[in-house]
Amino acid sequence: xxxxxxxxxxxxxxxxxxxxxxxxxxxxxxxxxxxxxxxxxxxxxxxxxxxxxxxxxxxxxxxxxxxxxxxxxxxxxxxxxxxxxxxxxxxxxxxxxxxxxxxxxxxxxxxxxxxxxxxxxxxxxxxxxxxxxxxxxxxxxxxxxxxxxxxxx
Length: 153
Description:
The protein has a domain of 97 residues. The radius of gyration is 32 Å and the shape is rod-shaped. Helix 2 packs antiparallel against helix 3, helix 2 packs antiparallel against helix 6 and helix 5 runs antiparallel to helix 6. With 153 residues, the protein is an all-alpha fold.
């Protein structure tokens, strides 16, 4: 309403804008809580739900190592591929025995997790996987792989 001097009194906001603004603030708070809630500390996930039989793992790995040697001797598998398979077999055995993602770990990470014997064995096999000419024979790498598996504790 206008007074004599032409001044208009301030208009009051309508109440529905206040409630709408409060509702938006509450929705944003709830949304952020919902987003951040799962990032709290989680209980460790047990990847090994069943106890694995180490002897069965060793036997299976040793069998695969022997099969790799037979494939090389028969000419079905080239030397480089044999070295790669041996490295994978040993890493896969260790992954099954420990529950760690050993197949994608570096030698330094293996040592950091206390798997020094495994790291040493893989370090002996590793150069043969990528060298133009193998540094050692497949038999020697297979023997290294066997030692790693048999001496696992």
